[in-house]
Here is the input.
Amino acid sequence: MIDKKTKQKIIVTGGCGYIGSHTVVALIENNFEVVILDDLSNSNITVLDRIEKITGIKPTFIEVDLKDISRVENIFRYNKDVAAVIHFAAYKAVSESVKEPLKYYQNNLYSLMNTLMSQQKHGINNFIFSSSATVYGNSKTLPITEENEVQRPFSPYGNTKKIAEEILDDLVKSDPNFSAISLRYFNPIGAHDSGLIGELPSGVPNNLMPYITQTAVGIRAKLMVYGNDYPTKDGTPIRDYIHVVDLAEAHVIAVKRLLNNKQEEQLETFNLGTGIGYSVLEIIKVFEKISGSKLNYEITGRRDGDVPLLFASTNLAKEKLGWQAKRKLEDMVLSSWKWEQNIRKVK
Ligand code: WQD
Here is the structure.
């Protein structure tokens, strides 16, 4: 049994959230010690017990609003032995960000800058950033590579991701000791196969998968399919859905890359997708097959900001990180469904 002192310590901001909690599980399973910083604004503290149930280890948890720089700086002062930071903490509801842009710019960018300034001050120079394919906007060249032009994202949420990457670029140019990896997620769905952690959006889900599972358990009356007049095979938009556990495993590989000084640039950027696109109707069809029940849905008008087609080139992550997504769409949908059934039962 490796004792605590030989474990490398990782701070995970937003570690009680959907992708954060799955990454915490993967880090613990890779023998890292984890300290979670989270304000619980869009997550639940019970996730700590569930992480313990899965891994046998309860991560250290500090409830903190990262917009409070004095508290953040204090935390880093007392955690100088931290080897790296993985930064998930951000508001992420696209439609809400359009209604309340300043709330998103303030929270997402202050949290990022306070974390970066505090860790840099204490000589912690490794940073993994949770970015999004939304920075590519409505890209015409597909599959999307990391060289695709980063456009002005439609939503303030997406723009906070773009600005964050620009901040990282300026930071590494100013500090030769600082290294960062930005991971651009396509569409994360699915849940840990234990059924103990998963996506738990507060309020009405914005994203397709939780809306489907909540409709199937009767929380939502029916799914609105936002448009079937797109230039795609069945008229509904196509996305590159990736299993959240594949995503979590990529974060462990990325943090090890920095800890072993394998990075080739001070700031590296990788797409995290499967390279395969599925339409909304295809997702529904797979869900109906897996759940064995018809889903109640209605085709309605398009949603502002939706693009017809978005899927990743996965070559760079495969070549440089030696990572590629392993889990198939059926795994993603089944694990989402199992998670939804579990929480409603335990609720
Ligand atoms: C997928 C498809 C919708 C809901 C967003 C963010 C991205 C990341 C993932 C945070 C689209 C359709 C959806 C519904 C529907 N978020 N849909 N009815 O918009 O591709 O990406 O979430 O990190 O940054 O931009 O994901 O799940 O919202 O939508 O028809 O009730 O499902 O039109 O075609 P999206 P999504």
In short: Residues 92, 94, 132, 134, 187, 206-208, 211, 223-226, 237, 239, 280, 303, 306 surround WQD (CB under 6 Å). The CA atoms of residues 106 and 114 lie 11 Å apart. The domain at 9-190+241-274 is CATH 3.40.50.720 (Rossmann fold).
